[in-house]
Design brief:
Structural class: mainly alpha
Helix content: 55-70%
Strand order of the largest sheet: 1-2
Order of helices and strands: HHEEHHHHHHHHHHH
Radius of gyration: 42 Å
Number of domains: 2
Number of strands: 2
Number of helices: 13
Protein backbone atom coordinates (compact mmCIF):
# COMPACT_ATOMS: atom_id res chain seq x y z
CA UNK A 1 0.00 0.00 0.00
CA UNK A 2 2.75 2.45 0.92
CA UNK A 3 4.61 2.18 -2.45
CA UNK A 4 1.33 2.85 -4.24
CA UNK A 5 0.67 5.99 -2.20
CA UNK A 6 4.22 7.23 -2.71
CA UNK A 7 4.00 6.59 -6.44
CA UNK A 8 0.81 8.61 -6.72
CA UNK A 9 2.27 11.48 -4.71
CA UNK A 10 -0.42 11.40 -2.01
CA UNK A 11 1.54 9.99 0.91
CA UNK A 12 1.39 13.39 2.62
CA UNK A 13 -2.20 12.53 3.50
CA UNK A 14 -0.85 9.52 5.40
CA UNK A 15 2.08 10.97 7.30
CA UNK A 16 0.28 14.24 8.07
CA UNK A 17 2.90 16.46 6.44
CA UNK A 18 0.10 18.42 4.74
CA UNK A 19 -2.56 18.89 7.42
CA UNK A 20 -6.20 19.54 6.75
CA UNK A 21 -6.84 23.25 6.02
CA UNK A 22 -9.49 25.18 7.94
CA UNK A 23 -13.02 24.30 6.94
CA UNK A 24 -14.19 27.95 6.72
CA UNK A 25 -12.62 31.21 5.64
CA UNK A 26 -13.34 34.70 6.87
CA UNK A 27 -16.15 36.63 5.20
CA UNK A 28 -15.34 40.32 5.37
CA UNK A 29 -18.88 41.33 4.44
CA UNK A 30 -20.35 39.63 7.47
CA UNK A 31 -17.30 39.74 9.68
CA UNK A 32 -17.43 35.99 10.43
CA UNK A 33 -16.05 32.67 9.22
CA UNK A 34 -19.11 31.70 7.25
CA UNK A 35 -17.63 30.72 3.87
CA UNK A 36 -16.65 27.06 3.30
CA UNK A 37 -13.06 26.86 2.12
CA UNK A 38 -12.59 25.37 -1.40
CA UNK A 39 -9.16 24.06 -0.41
CA UNK A 40 -10.74 22.22 2.52
CA UNK A 41 -13.28 20.56 0.23
CA UNK A 42 -10.55 19.41 -2.19
CA UNK A 43 -8.37 18.11 0.65
CA UNK A 44 -11.29 16.28 2.28
CA UNK A 45 -12.37 14.67 -0.98
CA UNK A 46 -8.88 13.37 -1.75
CA UNK A 47 -8.37 12.14 1.81
CA UNK A 48 -11.64 10.19 1.84
CA UNK A 49 -10.93 8.58 -1.55
CA UNK A 50 -7.59 7.26 -0.33
CA UNK A 51 -9.12 6.25 3.01
CA UNK A 52 -11.78 4.21 1.22
CA UNK A 53 -9.12 2.32 -0.74
CA UNK A 54 -7.14 1.62 2.43
CA UNK A 55 -10.14 0.36 4.40
CA UNK A 56 -11.12 -2.02 1.61
CA UNK A 57 -7.69 -3.66 1.85
CA UNK A 58 -7.88 -4.31 5.60
CA UNK A 59 -8.87 -7.67 7.03
CA UNK A 60 -11.73 -8.15 9.47
CA UNK A 61 -9.21 -8.87 12.25
CA UNK A 62 -7.88 -5.28 12.24
CA UNK A 63 -10.82 -3.35 10.82
CA UNK A 64 -12.34 -2.87 14.26
CA UNK A 65 -9.24 -0.95 15.36
CA UNK A 66 -9.98 2.00 13.05
CA UNK A 67 -13.76 2.31 13.41
CA UNK A 68 -13.48 5.68 15.18
CA UNK A 69 -10.97 7.18 12.71
CA UNK A 70 -12.26 9.80 10.28
CA UNK A 71 -9.06 10.68 8.38
CA UNK A 72 -6.41 8.68 6.58
CA UNK A 73 -3.68 9.93 8.89
CA UNK A 74 -5.63 8.75 11.95
CA UNK A 75 -6.13 5.27 10.45
CA UNK A 76 -2.46 4.93 9.52
CA UNK A 77 -1.21 6.00 12.94
CA UNK A 78 -3.66 3.66 14.72
CA UNK A 79 -2.61 0.66 12.66
CA UNK A 80 1.05 1.52 13.08
CA UNK A 81 0.72 1.59 16.85
CA UNK A 82 -1.35 -1.59 17.03
CA UNK A 83 0.50 -3.79 14.55
CA UNK A 84 4.05 -2.47 14.64
CA UNK A 85 4.30 -2.15 18.40
CA UNK A 86 7.64 -3.51 19.64
CA UNK A 87 6.23 -4.26 23.10
CA UNK A 88 7.31 -7.46 24.79
CA UNK A 89 3.72 -8.64 25.15
CA UNK A 90 3.16 -8.35 21.41
CA UNK A 91 6.35 -10.26 20.62
CA UNK A 92 5.45 -13.01 23.09
CA UNK A 93 1.98 -13.27 21.61
CA UNK A 94 3.34 -13.73 18.10
CA UNK A 95 5.85 -16.36 19.20
CA UNK A 96 3.09 -18.16 21.09
CA UNK A 97 0.95 -18.17 17.94
CA UNK A 98 3.86 -19.73 16.06
CA UNK A 99 4.19 -22.47 18.68
CA UNK A 100 0.46 -23.23 18.49
CA UNK A 101 0.39 -23.19 14.69
CA UNK A 102 -0.98 -26.49 13.32
CA UNK A 103 -2.09 -27.44 9.84
CA UNK A 104 -5.08 -29.54 10.90
CA UNK A 105 -7.53 -29.89 8.02
CA UNK A 106 -6.20 -26.81 6.22
CA UNK A 107 -4.60 -26.99 2.80
CA UNK A 108 -0.89 -26.30 2.34
CA UNK A 109 -1.58 -22.87 0.84
CA UNK A 110 -3.79 -21.72 3.71
CA UNK A 111 -1.39 -23.11 6.31
CA UNK A 112 1.58 -21.36 4.73
CA UNK A 113 -0.35 -18.07 4.52
CA UNK A 114 -1.00 -18.21 8.25
CA UNK A 115 2.67 -18.89 8.96
CA UNK A 116 3.80 -16.09 6.61
CA UNK A 117 1.42 -13.62 8.26
CA UNK A 118 2.98 -14.28 11.68
CA UNK A 119 6.46 -14.09 10.15
CA UNK A 120 5.70 -10.66 8.62
CA UNK A 121 4.16 -9.33 11.84
CA UNK A 122 7.29 -10.22 13.77
CA UNK A 123 9.40 -8.40 11.19
CA UNK A 124 7.13 -5.34 11.37
CA UNK A 125 7.42 -5.35 15.16
CA UNK A 126 11.19 -5.13 14.90
CA UNK A 127 11.91 -8.78 15.83
CA UNK A 128 12.32 -10.66 12.56
CA UNK A 129 12.50 -14.45 12.72
CA UNK A 130 15.26 -16.34 10.95
CA UNK A 131 14.37 -18.60 8.03
CA UNK A 132 15.76 -21.57 9.91
CA UNK A 133 13.36 -21.05 12.82
CA UNK A 134 10.51 -20.34 10.43
CA UNK A 135 11.11 -23.66 8.68
CA UNK A 136 11.21 -25.51 12.00
CA UNK A 137 7.90 -24.01 13.12
CA UNK A 138 6.30 -24.92 9.79
CA UNK A 139 7.67 -28.49 9.91
CA UNK A 140 6.45 -28.89 13.48
CA UNK A 141 2.84 -28.03 12.59
CA UNK A 142 2.47 -30.18 9.48
CA UNK A 143 0.29 -33.27 9.39
CA UNK A 144 1.81 -36.72 9.76
CA UNK A 145 1.63 -37.44 6.03
CA UNK A 146 4.51 -34.95 5.50
CA UNK A 147 6.86 -36.78 7.87
CA UNK A 148 9.04 -38.31 5.14
CA UNK A 149 9.33 -34.99 3.31
CA UNK A 150 10.26 -33.13 6.48
CA UNK A 151 12.97 -35.70 7.22
CA UNK A 152 14.59 -35.02 3.86
CA UNK A 153 14.20 -31.23 3.94
CA UNK A 154 15.45 -30.73 7.48
CA UNK A 155 18.85 -32.19 6.59
CA UNK A 156 19.60 -29.48 4.02
CA UNK A 157 22.54 -27.26 4.82
CA UNK A 158 20.75 -24.00 4.02
CA UNK A 159 17.23 -23.12 5.22
CA UNK A 160 14.59 -23.00 2.51
CA UNK A 161 13.04 -19.76 1.40
CA UNK A 162 9.31 -19.30 1.74
CA UNK A 163 8.75 -19.88 -1.99
CA UNK A 164 10.88 -23.06 -2.10
CA UNK A 165 9.28 -24.51 1.03
CA UNK A 166 5.81 -23.73 -0.30
CA UNK A 167 6.58 -25.45 -3.62
CA UNK A 168 7.91 -28.60 -1.90
CA UNK A 169 4.83 -28.88 0.28
CA UNK A 170 2.43 -28.26 -2.60
CA UNK A 171 4.10 -30.96 -4.69
CA UNK A 172 3.91 -33.47 -1.85
CA UNK A 173 0.26 -32.59 -1.22
CA UNK A 174 -0.58 -33.13 -4.89
CA UNK A 175 1.17 -36.50 -5.07
CA UNK A 176 -0.29 -37.67 -1.78
CA UNK A 177 -3.84 -36.85 -2.88
CA UNK A 178 -3.43 -38.79 -6.14
CA UNK A 179 -2.09 -41.89 -4.41
CA UNK A 180 -4.77 -41.73 -1.76
CA UNK A 181 -7.60 -41.58 -4.30
CA UNK A 182 -6.18 -44.45 -6.35
CA UNK A 183 -5.84 -46.65 -3.26
CA UNK A 184 -9.30 -45.74 -2.05
CA UNK A 185 -10.90 -46.61 -5.40
CA UNK A 186 -9.59 -50.23 -5.47
CA UNK A 187 -11.32 -51.49 -2.29
CA UNK A 188 -14.58 -49.93 -3.41
CA UNK A 189 -14.47 -51.86 -6.68
CA UNK A 190 -13.63 -55.10 -4.93
CA UNK A 191 -16.35 -54.69 -2.37
CA UNK A 192 -18.98 -53.94 -5.01
CA UNK A 193 -18.05 -57.00 -7.10
CA UNK A 194 -18.00 -59.28 -4.07
CA UNK A 195 -21.40 -58.07 -2.98
CA UNK A 196 -22.84 -59.09 -6.33
CA UNK A 197 -21.66 -62.68 -5.82
CA UNK A 198 -23.00 -63.07 -2.27
CA UNK A 199 -26.68 -63.81 -1.47
CA UNK A 200 -28.66 -61.08 0.24
CA UNK A 201 -28.82 -61.07 4.01
CA UNK A 202 -32.63 -60.99 4.15
CA UNK A 203 -35.17 -63.03 2.10
CA UNK A 204 -36.26 -61.39 -1.12
CA UNK A 205 -38.54 -62.56 -3.96
CA UNK A 206 -35.46 -63.85 -5.76
CA UNK A 207 -33.99 -65.41 -2.61
CA UNK A 208 -36.80 -67.64 -1.33
CA UNK A 209 -36.80 -70.21 1.44
CA UNK A 210 -36.33 -72.99 -1.11
CA UNK A 211 -33.16 -71.25 -2.32
CA UNK A 212 -31.92 -71.11 1.26
CA UNK A 213 -32.70 -74.83 1.81
CA UNK A 214 -30.80 -75.70 -1.35
CA UNK A 215 -27.66 -74.28 0.26
CA UNK A 216 -28.26 -76.20 3.47
CA UNK A 217 -29.17 -79.64 2.04
CA UNK A 218 -27.38 -80.88 -1.11
CA UNK A 219 -30.12 -83.59 -1.62
CA UNK A 220 -32.95 -81.09 -1.55
CA UNK A 221 -32.86 -80.24 -5.25
CA UNK A 222 -32.47 -83.93 -6.27
CA UNK A 223 -35.62 -84.96 -4.41
CA UNK A 224 -37.78 -81.99 -5.44
CA UNK A 225 -39.01 -83.49 -8.76
CA UNK A 226 -39.69 -87.05 -7.60
CA UNK A 227 -43.27 -88.27 -6.93
CA UNK A 228 -44.74 -84.82 -7.02
CA UNK A 229 -47.68 -84.69 -4.64
CA UNK A 230 -47.15 -88.35 -3.34
CA UNK A 231 -44.34 -87.85 -0.91
CA UNK A 232 -44.92 -89.03 2.68
CA UNK A 233 -42.71 -88.50 5.65
CA UNK A 234 -42.51 -92.24 6.35
CA UNK A 235 -42.40 -93.60 2.77
CA UNK A 236 -39.48 -95.84 3.62
CA UNK A 237 -41.46 -97.83 6.17
CA UNK A 238 -43.38 -100.95 5.24
CA UNK A 239 -47.18 -100.46 5.09
CA UNK A 240 -49.94 -103.00 4.48
CA UNK A 241 -50.43 -101.57 1.02
CA UNK A 242 -46.78 -101.98 0.24
CA UNK A 243 -46.69 -105.48 1.65
CA UNK A 244 -49.65 -106.43 -0.51
CA UNK A 245 -48.03 -105.16 -3.60
CA UNK A 246 -44.86 -107.02 -2.74
CA UNK A 247 -46.74 -110.29 -2.24
CA UNK A 248 -48.56 -109.85 -5.52
CA UNK A 249 -45.24 -109.36 -7.24
Amino acid sequence: MKPSLLGQGVFHFVDGSVPCPPSHIFDSSTGSYSIISPSFLRWKQQDQLILSALLSSLSVDVLHLVVDCSTLHCVWRTLEKALASPSNSRIMQLHGSFQDLRQGDSSVSLYMQQAKSLFDELAAAGHPMSLENFNLYVFRGLRGEFKDLVTSLITKAEPLSYADLHNHLLTHEFLHKNSFHSMAAAPSLLSSSSLLQQPPLLPTPQFSAQHAMSHLSPNFNRNRGRSKGNWHPHNNRSTPQNRGQSAAD
